[in-house]
Reverse transcriptase zinc-binding domain-containing protein
Amino acid sequence: MGETHKYHLVGWDKVCSPIQFGGLGVRYLIPFNHALLGKWLWGFGLEELSLWRQVFVAKYRVERGCWTTNKPRGSHGLLFWHDNWCSNRSLKETFPILFGCSLNQNDSIASVLVSQSPGHLGEVVDKLHWRLNQNGTFDSRSYYHALHAPEVVHFPWKSIWGVKSPRRVAFFMWTVTWGRILTCDNLKKRGLVLAGWCCMCKADDESVNHLFIHCWAAEKLWSLVFRSVGIDWVLPLQVSDLLFG
Ligand SMILES: [Zn+2]
């Protein structure tokens, strides 16, 4: 606490959401770190001649596209029946009866393709393909969103961040839209004991929507603005609806 204590107005989960979903676009450090480390996994599958990969292979060996202490397999190590290499499902799930009949259920793709006749699957180059990106190459952004899918929230972000206003004003409106400024009702939720009425009209409890829309002082200000531009407008119940308007 102390004199420098400041309230945490908006939760970290909202702060870490994308801007279009009501957040500030800050990334969660742990999944973002994993997404960045994914570049090494991707490079491990592609850079077969690089020195750093050879060091890992010598120390840990390779299986299923990654380093391991188990016996290595050919190609990228993908298993013909168990891995998702030609669709979103494994062949074991797509063709369970065939899988039950197979005598080589743990064969790698490389070993199966070598046995095919020329002109068929044997001519297809086995390569890594990143399904989260249209061009098939890895990028940490798509990996991060796969690791941490944001909650979809309908939020008037364009009315806040897309207008020409000072950044601190936009940030204040972002906090207001979430209803998290330190009005009396929010202070009471945080355990403070105080009179909760609006200090301007003393006729109602002070909440975000009252302070910015329904208080007589706010209504006078809004009507002054509307008269100056020559329009009649019925104010909505909530600030967020005002920004969507
Ligand atoms: Zn009031």
Notes: Confidence is low (pLDDT under 50) at residues 70-75. The radius of gyration is 29 Å. The pocket of zinc ion is lined by residues 198, 200-201, 204, 210, 215 (CB under 6 Å).
